[in-house]
Design goal:
By secondary structure, this protein is mostly helical. It folds into two domains: about 70 residues, Arc Repressor Mutant, subunit A; about 35 residues, no CATH class. It is built from six helices and two strands, in the order H-H-H-H-H-E-E-H. The protein has a two-stranded antiparallel sheet. Helix 1 packs antiparallel against helix 2. The longest helix is centred in the middle third of the chain and has 25 residues. The chain is elongated and about 95 Å long. The termini are far apart.
Length: about 130
C-alpha cells in the first residue's frame, strides 16, 4: 500500500515582491498603500511579514522606512547648504534643529521705513552662548 500525499487545502500563497514593498516603505507609503500596490489585503501583508521575515509589519516597516527618512534629511540638508541654497529650507532646518523661532515685534513703529523688526530667538542654551560672546 502506498501512502498518498495529502491534498493542500486553500488558496495558493500570493507571491509578494518584497523589493517593491521595501521601496514603498522607504518613501513612507502606508500599509494600506503598500498592500494596494502589491494587490493584497492588509491582513495578508501583516501575516506574510510574520511568516517570511519573522517580524510584525510595524517592525518590518520601521526597518525599511528609516532609510527614506535619512535620504530625505540628506536632500533637505543639501538644499539648505548646497551651491544654490534655498533660504526657506535653511530657515525650516534652523527652527527644527537649532531651536530658533521668529518673533516679530514693533519697536517704536518698526524701522524708519515702517517695516516690523524681526528677531530670531534661540533656545536657552544658544542664547547663553550668545550672551557670553557679547
Amino acid at each position: 500500500m502506498s501512502k498518498k500525499t495529502p491534498k493542500k487545502i486553500g488558496r495558493p500563497l500570493k507571491v509578494i515582491d518584497w523589493d517593491l514593498a521595501q521601496k514603498l516603505a522607504k518613501i513612507q507609503c502606508t500599509a494600506r498603500e503598500i498592500s494596494s500596490v502589491l494587490d493584497i489585503n492588509q491582513d495578508t501583508l501583516a501575516d506574510r511579514c510574520k511568516k517570511d521575515h519573522s517580524l510584525t509589519f510595524s517592525e518590518w516597516f520601521k526597518k525599511h522606512s528609516d532609510g527614506g527618512k535619512a535620504s530625505l534629511r540628506r536632500s533637505l540638508w543639501g538644499m539648505a547648504t548646497g551651491e544654490r541654497p534655498n533660504a526657506a529650507v535653511a530657515i525650516w532646518l534652523s527652527k527644527n534643529y537649532l531651536g530658533m523661532s521668529e518673533k516679530i515685534e514693533q519697536v517704536n513703529g518698526g524701522t524708519e521705513s515702517g517695516t516690523p523688526v524681526v528677531n530670531l530667538i534661540f533656545d536657552n542654551e544658544e542664547k547663553k552662548k550668545l550672551e557670553k560672546n557679547d
